[in-house]
Specification:
15% strand, single chain, 728 residues, alpha+beta, 6-stranded antiparallel sheet, 6-stranded mixed sheet, Rossmann fold
Length: 728
């Protein structure tokens, strides 16, 4: 199993966190709070890389079980649904597990990628528990095996380094799940006690077997004598019953023939009715065909008329007309603007002329005063000169006024002509748009008429098929009718009532004799039944005694067997054998890892038994480390070397647990596996990870020691703020 992608949505503290495992082989995961990497704990590192994966695969995570995982423990506060998607590969095949939990329900999907599409691993619809089982069976892992083989948990190194030899053995035994044999041993002891109690209950049931067997034999002889009498009576009854059965068969045969004749008559009537109905239906369908043909002809004429109407509609180029309309409109607006400007000039000149003429008249009547031009005193001598100047100004303005008025009239005329042209173009556009709408309306009607014609043609074809089928049915019915009529002719003169009455008289006599024999048989059966009941009671008593004896023997054999199991499940039994074999395999794997870590300069020997002072052997778990200088016990080495050995041991255990489960594990998670490493410890830890990279395709290191980030290319930061956890 190699992880490919992990997505956690509203899971625990994560809103939407996505991990693409294809981007790294080894990743260091550190935490932060509001961007402060010194506050690493509680950021949501393990909840994403440990809890999200185990919950998605097994519906469990740290400190939980399936029964106590309530929605509020999974779903992010304020949300109504949490989900985790985990994609992984096995032998280059992609698999996907998607698990979600709402406030009211749970759902899980297990899929495989086939031809680019996700398809369910199972072909049947399964519930959550069934899908959970399929996932475990497919992976050959359960939550416990997965956690022990893939997750290098918090505190393992410290606990292993500070433990005694016997405590180390207990740690290894727990990881290998050998403590289950304690439960097996207790169960075997309980079975021994329970079986012994059953033996004590059965002992009083054993009785005198020979006396019971003699009473059974006497009862059996009497029963056999009565059974012989019963055999004779039954033989006589069998003859009578056989005769009645023959009469019944004769009656049934005659009734069958009578019923057959009645059925033939009914069939003839039914066939004649069917033929008549089909012929009327064919006539009705022919009428419908004719109506459909008439409709088709009408639609053809309508189609022709509409096409002719469409051809008559001639539409000018509306776009060209619109362009022309814009051009003329622009020219028209310019003329209006020029007209308005000239009109203002004319009005201004007319006002000036009027004012000058009024001034001229005023001066003519003025006897003394100031000149309006030069403001000198006016006398009779210079009055004429002033009036002449004013009249010259009036003449000049009038000349300009007449010139502008002529130009104004021309612009006004051009504007009116331009307006007529613009209105004409706009009328053409409106008319052509109406024509275009009319043509579209006609085209829509043409399509409707064509579809109606095609529909009627399909109706005719369908009706003709039905007519052909019904014609064939009529022919078949007519053949059946001829056959039924021939059958009726051969049976119409037979009197079945007389035959049946004669047979029933014979049956009545035989049934009277049969009832008499039945009474005699019934009495004998009662006697035999009473004898059988006595025998059954005696046999039950005999069987109970024999069964009690046999059961006691079987129980005693089982007691001996479970006593052997108590020994087998004990400390010196199976678990000792497994631990010894696993220790050998662990030693080989650890030394293989140490060879890679130390270039062959270090190896270990695992000692599982030690000699006591009295010469006896006792179990232990001592680790003897040998380097190029000397050999010594695990406890005598430095913390850095102990770390290296502990990690090598834990990796070897992961491989061993996965191998025992029958699965392939290609990744490992170090969840706070080291604490407060010094520089030497960090270097040795990094060398361990480097060696492990030859075994695992993906390695994830969860830590709060940010110093480690300088040793790894891929660093994932899980930051947490008031909105929850997210990846950086």
């Amino acid at each position: 199993m190699v992880p490919v992608l992990l997505r956690a949505t509203n899971f625990l503290s994560h809103s939407d966190s996505v991990v693409d495992f294809s981007k790294f082989d080894i990743a260091l995961v550190v935490g932060a709070k509001n961007g402060d990497k010194s506050q690493s704990n509680g950021a949501g590192k393990s909840s994403l890389f440990v809890d999200a994966i185990t919950w998605c695969l097994f519906d469990k995570f740290r400190g939980s079980s399936t029964k106590n995982i309530t929605a509020d423990k999974i779903i992010k506060y304020g949300k109504d649904k949490a989900s985790v998607e985990f994609i992984f590969s096995i032998n280059d095949v992609l698999y996907r597990v998607y698990r979600e939990r709402t406030l009211k329900s749970s759902n899980v999907m297990f899929q495989v990628k086939n031809n680019g599409e996700w398809k369910s691993v199972s072909n049947t619809l399964l519930n959550v528990n069934q899908t959970n089982k399929i996932i475990c069976d497919f992976l050959r892992l359960d939550y416990s095996i997965f956690s022990n083989s893939i997750i290098f948990g918090q505190g393992f190194t410290t606990a292993f380094a500070t433990a005694t030899a016997s405590e180390r053995k207990e740690i290894i035994s727990n990881l290998l799940m050998l403590n289950r044999y304690d439960l097996y041993e207790e169960k075997a002891k309980k079975y021994v006690n329970d079986l012994q109690n059953q033996v004590d209950v059965l002992k009083p049931l054993v009785q005198n077997i020979e006396q019971i067997q003699k009473e059974i034999e006497n009862t059996k002889i009497e029963k056999e004598r009565k059974q012989l009498e019963l055999v004779d009576l039954r033989a006589e009854r069998e003859k009578i019953d056989k005769k009645i059965k023959e009469l019944v068969k004769q009656r049934e045969k005659i009734n069958s023939e009578a019923l057959q004749r009645k059925n033939i008559i009914d069939s003839i009537k039914d066939i004649e009715n069917q033929i008549e109905f089909l012929r009327k239906d064919i006539i009705d369908k022919e009428s419908k065909k004719e109506k459909a043909r008439e409709i088709i002809e009408i639609k053809k004429r309508e189609y022709k008329d509409l096409n002719e109407a469409k051809q008559k509609i001639i539409i000018e180029d509306i776009t060209q007309l619109e362009n022309e309309e814009k051009k003329v409109s622009d020219e028209y607006n310019k003329l209006i603007e020029s007209e308005s400007s000239l009109k203002a000039v004319l009005n201004n000149d007319a006002t000036k002329i009027k004012d000058l003429m009024a001034e001229c008249d005023r001066i003519k009547q003025l006897k003394i005063g100031k000149c309006p031009v030069c403001y000198s005193n006016i006398t009779d001598a210079n009055k004429k000169d002033v009036i002449q100047i004013l009249q010259n100004n009036i003449a000049s303005i009038k000349s300009m006024y007449l010139k502008n008025k002529s130009q104004y009239e021309k612009i006004k005329s051009d504007r009116d002509n331009c307006k007529k042209v613009l209105d004409s173009i706009r009328d053409k556009i409106a008319i052509n748009r109406q024509k275009d709408e009319e043509r579209k309306r006609i085209e829509a009607q043409i399509n409707i008429v064509k579809n109606e014609g095609y529909h009627q043609k399909n109706v005719i074809e369908l009706l003709q098929k039905e007519i052909n089928t019904q014609t064939e049915q009529i022919q078949q019915y007519e053949n059946d009718l001829k056959l039924k009529q021939r059958q009726f002719e051969s049976m119409k003169d037979i009197d079945y009532a007389d035959k049946i009455q004669d047979i029933e008289n014979k049956m009545s006599d035989s049934e009277f004799v049969l009832r008499s024999k039945d009474k005699q048989i019934e009495d004998l059966i009662s006697i035999i039944s009473a004898l059988q009941k006595d025998m059954d009671n005696l046999n039950d008593a005999l069987k109970k005694s024999i069964d009690a004896e046999n059961k006691i023997k079987q129980l005693q054999n089982k007691i001996e067997m479970y006593k052997q199991l108590v020994l087998a499940f004990g400390k010196n039994g199976i678990r000792s054998f497994i631990f010894e074999n696993c220790s050998i395999e662990l030693e080989e794997t650890i030394n293989d890892l140490l060879f890679r870590m130390t270039n062959g300069e270090m190896k270990v020997d695992i000692i599982t038994q030690k000699k006591n002072r009295d010469g006896s052997l006792s179990e232990t778990f001592d680790i003897v480390i040998s380097d190029k200088y000397h050999s010594d016990l695990f406890d005598m080495y430095s913390g850095g070397e102990q770390l290296r050995i502990a990690i090598a041991l834990r990796i070897a255990l992961s491989k061993l647990i996965a191998k025992r489960a029958g699965c392939q594990i290609k990744f490992i998670i170090f969840d706070e596996a080291t604490s407060y490493l010094d520089e030497d410890g960090i270097n040795k830890f990094v060398s361990c990870i480097s060696a492990a990279s030859n075994i695992f395709e993906k390695i994830i290191i969860i830590t709060h020691q940010t110093e480690l980030k300088d040793y790894f290319d891929s660093v994932i930061v899980v930051d947490k703020n008031d909105n929850g956890s997210f990846l950086k």
